[in-house]
């Protein structure tokens, strides 16, 4: 079976047509062009705190001032409030809020666009944004609104794809929503450069029917063989079900650390994509980037490399290789426990 056929079997429902490129940014660019040609509309609604890539258009989608380099951003992109429950932009509390943040998409469409959009574009869990994980109802509401105003749903699975969030091959399946267009990259070929935009035959036809497009290295035999091999290896390792078990073990340990250390304000994520938001004070939720910097040093010295993200640089992002073992997860939790103890003492918390 070739790669495009294989991807058609693991992506949700009607997503069957792949267009291979070389990066997540390119995959997202392709998705936007496809949405615009299919809908014959221009405007895109994205979410605040999103990260979409480093091209001019994907930096326009990106909603982090620190990741927007350059001078020319598209006026066709509008940003709605994001479902950041820990720091609710509407100062409400879930579930009493009725997921009011999702309704903001309608406000944005009605007040800042022509009233007809090409797409609503979002990551199932915002990666660079700090592993912000929307509540269960969010995507059903958001996507219904977008479709009502003519838009398709572009789901950016560059970070969440390929079993990362456990239980499903793609993160959006946790929310029971089927996108018209999905993008993927990063883990797709286990380190070799590749991006992919997968869509329905109808959307693909609209784009192909409009004119010529080529990616010189997109879909090259080396990267596609690597991607196919990676998928086979993941299936042999147990696939998303196995990653869910490992993720639950990691999450259980992080939740225990969350109870132990007041510097941890929030633990969130799904599967092997877990974040901890560090704060100086749980009541005021003041971001603690300095504590994160110190934690990095403490964990690195003991052989554990972790990432950070979030607008305030205070979210520790833990997304280990999907081949991680139970023992490695336990070791990582032990190192984190020790390092958090040192940081707490140094910061005078608790
Ligand atoms: C969610 C998301 N989309 C798109 C991209 C862009 O991918 P690339 O760096 O391969 O262009 C990234 C990169 O971090 C990402 O996290």
List the helices and strands and how they pair.
Elements: H1 3-10, E1 17-21, H2 24-39, E2 44-47, H3 56-61, E3 77-80, H4 100-112, E4 119-122, H5 138-148, E5 152-156, E6 181-184, E7 195-199, H6 201-208, H7 221-236, H8 239-260, E8 264-270, E9 273-281, E10 286-287, H9 289-301, E11 307-309, E12 315-318, H10 326-347
Parallel strand pairs: 2-3, 2-4, 4-5, 5-6
Antiparallel strand pairs: 1-7, 6-7, 8-9, 9-10, 9-12, 11-12
Helix pairs in contact: 2-6, 4-5, 8-10, 9-10
The structure holds pyridoxal-5'-phosphate (PLP).
Overview of the structural elements:
This protein is of the alpha/beta class and 350 residues long. It folds into two domains: 3-236, 3-Layer(aba) Sandwich (Aspartate Aminotransferase, domain 2), CATH 3.40.640.10; 239-347, Alpha-Beta Complex (Aspartate Aminotransferase, domain 1), CATH 3.90.1150. 39% of the residues lie in helices and 16% in strands. The protein has helices at 3-10, 24-39, 56-61, 100-112, 138-148, 201-208, 221-236, 239-260, 289-301, 326-347; strands at residues 17-21, 44-47, 77-80, 119-122, 152-156, 181-184, 195-199, 264-270, 273-281, 286-287, 307-309, 315-318. The chain has a seven-stranded mixed β-sheet, sandwiched between helices. Strands 8, 9, 10, 11 and 12 form a five-stranded antiparallel β-sheet that branches. Helix 4 packs parallel to helix 5 (138-148), helix 8 (239-260) runs parallel beside helix 10 and helix 9 (289-301) crosses helix 10. The longest helix is centred in the C-terminal third of the chain and has 22 residues, at 239-260. It binds pyridoxal-5'-phosphate. The site of pyridoxal-5'-phosphate has 15 residues, from helix 2. Pyridoxal-5'-phosphate is lined by residues 23-25, 28, 51-54, 123, 127-128, 156, 158-159, 185.
